[in-house]
Write a structure and sequence with these properties.
- There is one protein chain.
- The chain is mainly β.
- It has a domain at 1-46.
- It has no helices and three strands.
- Strands 1-2-3 form a three-stranded antiparallel β-sheet, with no helix packed on it.
- Strand 2 and strand 3 form a beta hairpin.
- The radius of gyration is 18 Å and the shape is elongated.
- It starts with 15 loop residues before the first strand and ends in a 33-residue tail after the last strand.
Length: 67
């Protein structure tokens, strides 16, 4: 969540808001921008990042759940 190697993107900036119409970001500082862009005002907001969900395996056997 607080990965320093995360690439900068308006998608994760505190000044950006997601557009309901397209995959663009509405920025307070620069206006409408592409999601992959960023500017000098970029500040990371960890609450805007949605982590990738882990895949759950479906090949469990009843022995896996017995003691």
């Amino acid at each position: 969540m607080f990965n320093k190697n995360l690439p900068r993107s308006c998608r994760y900036c505190i000044f950006g808001k997601d557009s309901l119409i397209s995959d663009e970001v509405l920025c307070i500082k620069r206006g409408v921008t592409a999601a992959g862009d960023y500017c000098r005002h970029y500040k990371y907001d960890p609450l805007r990042r949605v982590p990738i969900r882990a895949k759950i395996a479906d090949n469990y056997k009843p022995e896996d759940f017995s003691l």
